[in-house]
Amino acid sequence: MNSTSDLSAIDAADLHWMQHALELARRAQAEGEVPVGAVLVLDAQLVGAGCNRMIGANDPSAHAEIEALRDAGRRLGNYRFPGATLYATLEPCVMCAGAIVHARIARVVYAASDPKTGAAGSMFDILGSERHNHRVDIQRGVCADEAGRLLVDFFRARR
Description:
By secondary structure, this protein is α/β, with parallel strands linked by helices. It has helices at 12-30, 54-57, 64-76, 94-102, 144-158; strands at 4-5, 37-42, 45-51, 85-90, 107-112, 137-140. The chain is built from 5 helices and 6 strands, in the order βαββααβαββα. The termini are far apart.
C-alpha cells in the first residue's frame, strides 16, 4: 500500500541519511553537475550512494538515484532491494521512479519537490500508481529548504 508521510513523522535516521545525500549533492555541484544526491539504505546500512553525473559521464541516465541503485547492485550482487529506503535531495523523475519501482524499493524520502518533472506526486505519480504491482511509501520534504537552496543557488550562478 502506498502512503505519504508528512513532516511530523521525521525521525533522526531520516535526517542523518538525508544529510549524507546533501553532502553528495554538494559534491555534484563542485563538479559542475546539478546538485542532487541520493543514498540507498537497507537494514540501517548504506548500500548505495550517488550524485548527478550526467555531464561528466556524458550519460543522460546518470541521475543521483540511478547511480545509487547501480552502486547498490554492485555491492549486493542483486538488482532488487526489498525493504530498502532511498533518500534523494530532489523528487525523483519518471526515469528514476520507474527504476525505483523495478528495484522494489520500499520507501523513498526526498527533500525538494520538483513541480516540473517530479514523479512522486508533483507532476506524475509513478511511485504510487495502482497500475504497478509494487507501491512505494513516500516521505516528502525532509531538509527541503536546504536542498532547494542548493538548486536555486546553482541555477542562479549559471545564469
